[in-house]
Design a protein that fits this description.
Layout: H1 17-35, H2 39-45, H3 50-59, H4 77-88, H5 95-111, H6 114-126, E1 131-134, E2 150-154, E3 157-168, E4 175-181, E5 193-199, E6 208-213, E7 224-235, H7 247-283, E8 285-286, E9 289-290, H8 295-323, H9 329-354, H10 365-377, H11 382-396
Parallel strand pairs: 1-4
Antiparallel strand pairs: 2-3, 3-7, 4-5, 6-7, 8-9
Length: 399
């Protein structure tokens, strides 16, 4: 049975540069053809983009980082990050639909038993089963060890009770990597935590229900809601790895890929804000010339270009480390922290460049402004990232 130290390594996962470029070109064409025409409608009305989800499945995005032996694309994290950057530079929210799903899949692929991998990963890769990660609770966000959802063994099953909150894909997903306590009295606390493959019953019964959808400032069209477990009975063979007490490491191990994804989303938002600001600054004229010729605007654009480029390089650096199978919490933390802050700063500066027009929902830039702040909060707050960065840096550089 697999444990947290029996991690699958992605070392050696590469892609031919020409194949990567062809895939990215296909993403660009999809964005132009299918994504851009519907963004405003879905974002402003907070409507699930069902047609785009079907198209993402057809392109293989729900299996982007799942191994080819399970029907996935088997892409390296570097290519995956570039895909997320491209899409996020137009509409960040939809990348969350497949990112949360892929973190769930990564937990099964890295730590699952052979039987679990064979049963679940092909369906995850095809998009037949879609879902996400169920970690956060009303009283447990950054402090995952404080979760109160309990799973108690009952014969060949576990019975689960508790509530998860702010879960992406909660309404439209059908399966989640669920973090629970199997030994609430364990000390230290993490030794009593386990991770399950929790699927919704086809008929909606079985003690697994969804609470109301949250009305959010940004990150529209993807649903975020509560997951409620009331005497939810789940077979013991859906305990990831088959061993209790491994859940904390299984869940946090997947956050490296999650933080690379959030960093890539931050890059996309920073680059998209820069693109919009650059276009507008060349079109808008004051005092007889385009505003891009005014020194005040030039200073803003110069900083925006530099932030976006630095964010991209930090993110790709983290992705390279992940692909080598190296521990990369330092690199992923730096990328997530810097890129998310770059997204916020660039979107704010773009709002200033647009002036009063930035407050109109007819212009895309206001969406970038609304969406960017989430990047500083999700997948571990930036305050926590700075602590991780410092601790790992000191650990790697002993006196």
């Amino acid at each position: 049975m697999a444990t947290a130290v029996d991690m699958m390594s992605d070392q050696g996962r590469t892609i031919d540069p020409a194949e990567e470029e062809a895939f990215l070109d296909a993403i660009d064409r999809w964005i132009e053809r299918s994504v851009k025409p519907v963004i405003l409608h879905h974002d402003h009305n907070d409507i699930w983009p069902e047609q785009l989800v079907h198209e993402m499945a057809e392109m293989g995005l729900f299996g982007a980082t799942i191994g080819q032996e399970y029907g996935g694309l088997g892409l390296p994290a570097t290519t995956y990050a570039k895909i997320v950057m491209r899409i996020s530079s137009y509409w960040m929210a939809i990348t969350g639909i497949f990112n949360s799903h892929l973190i769930m899949a990564a937990a099964v692929e890295r730590f699952g038993t052979p039987a679990q991998k064979a049963k679940w990963l092909p369906k995850f890769a095809s998009g037949e089963i879609r879902g996400g990660l169920a970690l956060t609770e009303p009283n447990a966000g950054t402090d995952l060890q404080a979760v109160r959802t309990i799973a108690r063994r009952d014969g060949e099953d576990y019975v689960i009770n508790g509530t998860k909150t702010w879960i992406s894909n909660a309404l439209n997903g059908s399966c989640f990597a669920l973090l629970v306590k199997t030994d609430p009295d364990a000390s230290p606390r993490y030794k009593g935590m386990s991770l399950f493959i929790a699927d919704k019953r086809a008929d909606g019964s079985g003690g697994f229900t969804t609470g109301k959808k949250f009305d959010k400032l940004g990150y529209k069209a993807i649903d975020s809601a509560e997951l409620i477990f009331e005497d939810y009975r789940i077979p013991a063979d859906q305990l990831i790895g088959g061993v209790e007490g491994q859940g904390f490491f299984q869940a946090t191990g997947g956050l490296e890929l999650g933080r690379i994804n959030v960093a890539a989303r931050g890059v996309g938002l920073a680059e998209g804000s820069l693109r919009l600001a650059t276009e507008y600054a060349q079109q808008r004229q004051t005092m007889g010339k385009p505003i891009c010729e005014h020194q005040a605007i030039q200073l803003k654009i110069g900083e925006m270009v530099t932030r976006a480029r630095a964010a991209r390089l930090l993110t790709l650096d983290a992705a390279v480390a992940y692909d080598k199978g190296e521990r990369c919490d330092l690199e992923a933390g730096m990328a997530k922290y810097f890129s998310s802050e770059a997204a916020v700063a660039n979107s704010q500066e773009a709002m200033r460049i647009y002036g009063g027009y930035s407050y109109s929902k007819e212009y895309d830039i206001e969406r970038f402004y609304r969406d960017s702040m989430l990047m500083c909060i999700g997948e571990g707050t930036n305050e926590m990232q700075r602590m991780i960065i410092s601790k790992q840096w000191v650990k790697r550089n002993p006196a």
